[in-house]
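[09:14] KT: can someone run the structure on this one? pasting the chain below
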Amino acid sequence: MNRRDMLLLLAGTAALPDRLLAMGRAVHKRAQAGTLRALTPQQHEIAATIAELIIPKTDTPGARDAGVPAFIDVMLAEWADDEQRKMFTTGLADVDARSRAAFGKDFVACTAAQQSEIVQDLDYELAQLRDAKADTSRQFFGAMKWVTLTGYYTSEVGASSELHFRVVPGRYEPCYPLEQP
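[09:31] RB: done, structure tokens below
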């Protein structure tokens, strides 16, 4: 999925842009504390690596630069219920198990190409479920993509560098002459 596709996906939330942005900004503010609340350090690093593979750093900042890993932890701690947290942490454990089965090492110890292969497999499985019109609401990678996109595009970095969001549009001109007709 490229960034244009991500923007189109987020366009579906256009009915609530102010609420979504406000929620995201509030979560990002609480995430600045820097302490993990819902994930272990190993789980946090797996989530951070996957988020960076979903939105990599290019000529614009990536998911890590936008604080998405901390955003995910706060969302899981404050917004997710026990069932959602369990689904998410089970998904992270599954990523590690897939990595050990395929490459003989933990996900974070794999090369970037190996990590990308695992994430592509997860994305393919999600696409297969969507094509089959199956319920994907309890599917790990779908939730991971959603929280990554939401975290990125509600961050100051994502909103300003990609969406070109400005709180005050235009520019300040204090002494602008007015013409009389």
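[09:33] KT: thanks! Residues 18 and 24 are 10 Å apart (CA to CA).
[09:34] RB: yep, looked fine to me
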